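Might you be able to review the protein record set out just below?
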Amino acid sequence: MKKLVFLSYRKGYHPPLISQPSPQICLHKFNRGDGSASKSKQGGRRKSPKGYREAIFLGLILAILAFSINLWAVDVYLNIVKGQGRKVRIAVPAFIGQKGDFSQILSQIVQDDLRQSGYFRLVEALEIMPGKMSLGEKFQELKSAGAEVMADGQFSLKGEKMVLNGRLYDLTNNRQITGRAYRGKKNDFRQIAHRFSDEIVYRFTGIKGIAHTKIAFVHQEGKNKELYLVDYDGHNLEKLTFDYSLGLFPAWSPDGKTLLYTTFKKGNPDLYLIDFVSREARGLLTFQGLNMGAKFSPNGKEIVLVMSKDGNPELYLYSLRKKKLKRLTYYRGIDSDPTWSPNGREIAFSSDRSGTPQIYIMDKEGGNLRRLTFKGGYNTSPDWSPRGDKIVYAGMKGGSFDIYTVGVHSRKIERLTDSLFEGGGSEDPCWSPDGRYLVYTVTRGGEKEIFIMRDGGTNNRKLVSLQGNCFSPAWSP
């Protein structure tokens, strides 16, 4: 006997506070009754039984209603974090686990991440002792302290491995929003906590958090310039290259598994690719002359870069699959600093074809060239926002560089730094993957340092402290 299977929402299922990848569903089977869906002897199809049609109709109505309720719940929380500067009041008590010192460390990392995100207001949870209170008692204590949400965690250690079970609770409705296990090496405990923080940000905004990200940059050691890596919060500093030469212009692949950079270790500015799985670097483009300033396309299939193999610095497109080069620009001056639009259809770059360096945009095939900036005598180092609406760049005014943004369509310019007032210079801007932060180079007293700020020019903080010059930062996906 043939049966029909359709989907409906389980009785008693309550849509979550935020979007879930897929709703909870159950299977209902209904007997056809007539035993067939075949054509009748007259050549037409038999009509479906009345009860069968009503069951399908009812199932569709319930699914639409449940989906609508789910969307309404999403709007509630998105409005809280995005409207009128309202921040979600969240508590992060010390986590429960086998080793006491990790309890406070892990929760503190999450607290710092959430505070840095700008979406949350931290509520003190001093009265919450790990393992001493029931979940209900925690709810009551934190609600009385003004918290709306609680991020709770339990961790376990087995050898060199750590598992963190992170859960997020809605204190207003006394229910769990999400919960999952985060696994990794014990020494990577900061990354494990960062992943929990990013999940919390995603659950309230629909935007992937940036706590797990890293920043690559160049550090000058005497005459040599080597690449370094550091977490977005300045921890886990790591030296990446040992070329004992000049390493410049790091640029991440969209999946974060590889990194492009230019090195002079063989005497020529060659383009190399670092694989983070094997930790090996290999030559990618080694033509005589410049092979530098390379950037991956958003889909990771192509690279745009500056090359001088034909005599003049021009922009080229390189297909990683076909291993073919295509020249994009034909100008006797200097074209440099290419950056992709988020949709991969356009490329912005700096060119002095108007007399002084300005920002231009063209199609990825090299056509439809147009000038974007008309103010300022020296504009360079553009980086296209992941949101697609702005391009950040370094512009010179009064003999020093500052960071500006320009609207791609509006052409409205906003100045983010004031180096004349600070007595230095700001350059090498690069967007965070969520388009809310910028990492850039600050020059003060003759030394270069890496700083991070909000996209509006506020909340400046120094990323890392190293002897010598640090510059040319690149933010991972």
